[in-house]
Design brief:
8-stranded mixed beta sheet, Four Helix Bundle (Hemerythrin (Met), subunit A)
């Protein structure tokens, strides 16, 4: 998502960086291109118009300091206005201090309500140590109840359901069930339709009046662009929801929904779905998304992924082995498995400053870790511990066992030796300190 928009903005900024002064002419020319790029990304016309107007008003007449180029200054204004359009700060779901926190999910059919009910339950169980209960309140879509039960089994999270057609009663009874079973978080998976209709809205309003949820979240499919924004505005008019979950943010969408929905509804984006897996949901940070759009990367999110998915004790154990130059293929395998928990190679590279927009030109082999694992697992325990004993016959046996070539075995051994050599150099600045820094990294500096 946003790759096309990011690429266009990067091209515009290259032109801007060549300017030695800010003038009304070069501002107009540059912002004209920015406006076209945003409109092509399916951002709402009025949002684009106001956005460009604010950047232009800030840029014209602005003094340029000696160490800042005009291009850097305009990029700074664009970044700050993007953050403002996206909502400013991070909006969180406020948990109740006593009794269960009740979250009501709403949206059109196919937007991802049921899946994101499960994702959200898993997220809060991990982040807030909650004991969630998911409520199957979509009695109209075939297999919706079974889908939620299946997801509940996968996550080991209880699901409340009834053989009833009274949705309001199901939701109300679920709260009693939660109180009896000490569930401190209740998430209602309500029904959607293929389009907004009066019957659906009236039912949702009755559920809201009866249950009085602490939080109503609208689930928007970012792939449908401006239609998602229009639907959000209609739902908000009837339900006055509290926030938005944007789904399918990993898809090939142009990004218009993310850049329009906050301005049109006045309600913050609180979460984004970043993939199909049940742990692929993130709290929404406007400043971080703005950085990604402008090709600045997102180091903070990368560090958080490491914190959430990597075992700190294991990371420190591996750091100590590296420091002592006692790093084996067994340790290398453990390190690969830690990294794999963080997601795809491409998703991690996108968070690195200056890399995101260049990924299309890179040949990324997402199966590289799988191949390496196969090779290492085909070694004996002794061979993993003492790589120096890998002679020709052993390599041939490993190649047959892993389905890889001897050339690939040699390549891995060479990379392993290079990594050990690099770690010996890093040792001079203190690897342990560097590794622990992953768990307390300072915010990255803005590149403008």
């Amino acid at each position: 998502m946003f790759e096309e928009l990011s690429g266009k903005l990067e091209h515009i900024f290259k032109t801007l960086k060549g300017q030695h002064r800010i003038s009304e002419d070069n501002i107009k020319a540059s912002l004209r291109e920015v406006r076209v790029a945003l409109l092509e990304a399916d951002v709402n016309y009025n949002v684009v118009k106001d956005f460009i107007s604010r950047v232009r008003d800030r840029a014209i007449g602005e003094k340029v300091f000696e160490k800042i180029t005009p291009g850097q200054l305009i990029i700074k204004f664009i970044h700050e206005e993007l953050v403002r359009v996206l909502g400013g700060g991070t909006a969180e779901v406020e948990m109740q201090k006593s009794g269960p926190t009740v979250i009501m999910m709403c949206g059109l059919q196919g937007s991802g309500k049921t899946t994101h009910t499960a994702k959200l339950a898993s997220y809060f169980r991990k982040k807030n140590k909650k004991h969630p209960l998911m409520v199957a309140a979509d009695i109209y879509r075939p297999a919706a109840v079974d889908q939620l039960k299946t997801l509940g089994k996968q996550l080991n999270i209880p699901v409340y359901s009834e053989d009833s057609k009274d949705v309001v009663a199901i939701c109300s009874n679920a709260l009693d069930h939660a109180a009896q079973n000490k569930n401190d978080l209740v998430i209602l998976d309500t029904a959607g339709r293929l389009h907004i209709d009066e019957e659906m809205m009236n039912e949702l309003i009755r559920v809201k009046e009866k249950v009085q949820p602490h939080e109503i979240l609208f689930i928007a499919d970012s792939m449908i662009g401006q239609d998602a924004v229009t639907t959000a505005a209609e739902f908000n008019e009837k339900l006055n929801f509290d926030g938005v979950i944007l789904t399918k943010m990993d898809g090939d969408s142009r990004g218009g929904a993310a850049l329009s929905i906050r301005e049109i509804t006045g309600k913050p984006i609180k979460f984004v779905g970043t993939g199909e897996k049940l742990d692929e949901i993130e709290a929404f940070h406007p400043d971080r998304l703005a950085q990604r759009i402008l090709g600045m990367g997102d180091i903070l999110s990368l560090v958080e992924k490491a914190q959430d998915n990597m075992d700190q004790a294991e990371a420190e154990r591996l750091a100590k082995k590296l420091e002592k130059e006692d790093f084996t293929f067994e340790d290398f395998l453990a390190q690969i498995r830690q990294i794999k928990k963080m997601g795809s190679i491409k998703s991690m590279l996108k968070m690195m400053p200056g890399i995101g927009n260049k990924l299309d030109a890179m040949d990324i082999d997402e199966k590289a870790f799988v191949k390496i694992e196969a090779i290492i697992q085909s070694m004996t325990k002794k061979e993993r511990s003492k790589p120096n004993m890998l002679n020709g016959s052993r390599k041939l046996r490993i190649a047959k066992g892993s389905g890889r070539s001897v050339q690939e075995i040699n390549q891995l051994i060479k990379q392993f030796e290079q990594m050990n050599m690099m770690m010996r150099q890093i040792r001079k600045i203190g690897f342990n300190k560097l590794a622990r820094g992953m768990f307390g990294a300072p915010p990255p500096k803005r590149p403008y």
